[in-house]
Amino acid sequence: MMTNLFSSFDPSSGFYLSLNWMSTFLSLLFTPSMFWLIPSRWNFSWIKIIMTLHNEFKILLTNSIKGSTLIFISLFGFIMFNNLLGLFPYIFTSTSHLTLTLYLSLPLWLSFMIYGWTNNTTRMLAHLVPQGTPPMLMPFMVCIESISNIIRPTTLAVRLTANMIAGHLLLTLLGNTGPSMTLMMINVLIIAQLLLLILESAVAIIQSYVFAILSTLYSSEVN
User: Any transmembrane segments, and where (predicted)?
Assistant: First the structure.
């Protein structure tokens, strides 16, 4: 039962290299239509989202290079499209694997750390000891802050992966109980799955926003 339950997250379908990971790039097929000059509701909504994110990220990245908000907006869009596409049948959810999420979080964190310790060493050292810390607690605070800083890419990756896996497992569990139910219970099950699908769509968008905003906060600390 457990093997069948987690088989939907298996990226391999045979001896040769699986093409399931190609679903990661399906979002590129939807990108051009959103930047057409033809007015539409989707175009207007997407531009509104981009401008809202730009204004929010710009506040956090006041001392950064001009145009740096585009990196985090692109990150938000990439994760959001992959999360939403994973809700469709027979499309592999790449963001439910640490292989992808760590590839996104670890290089970002490493670049922030290298830049911060190279150009703002004094400020990076000041972050290890919060203001107002008693002298006796300073060595412990340095250890705690160092550990919390080191595990940042892992927490970013695990948070996104865990939320994607949890929703898909719940949908799979509900779907597997359908054949053993009566007609009346199947109708209730369909309504429950539709409500859960709406919830998972909201989670997909929220988790992509959380990943992008936390990456922006980490970047603002080193500037």
Answer: 20-38, 70-92, 98-117
Which one-letter amino acid corresponds to residue 122? T
Query: What are 178-195's pLDDT values in tens digits?
Result: 677 777 777 888 888 888
Amino acid identity of residue 102, one-letter, is: L
More confident residue, 25 or 189: 189
Is residue 208 within 8 Å of residue 101, measured between CB atoms? no
Query: For residue 127, is it within any domain?
Result: yes
How crowded is residue 129: how many other Cβ atoms within 10 Å of its Cβ?
15
Question: Considering the domain boundaries, does residue 143 fall inside one?
Answer: yes
What pLDDT sits at residue 204? 92
Instruction: Identify the CA nearest to 107 among candidates 138, 143, 152.
Output: 152
Task: Give residue 147's identity as a one-letter amino acid code.
Answer: I
Distance CA 49, CA 42 (A): 11
CA–CA separation, 102 and 82 (whole Å): 15
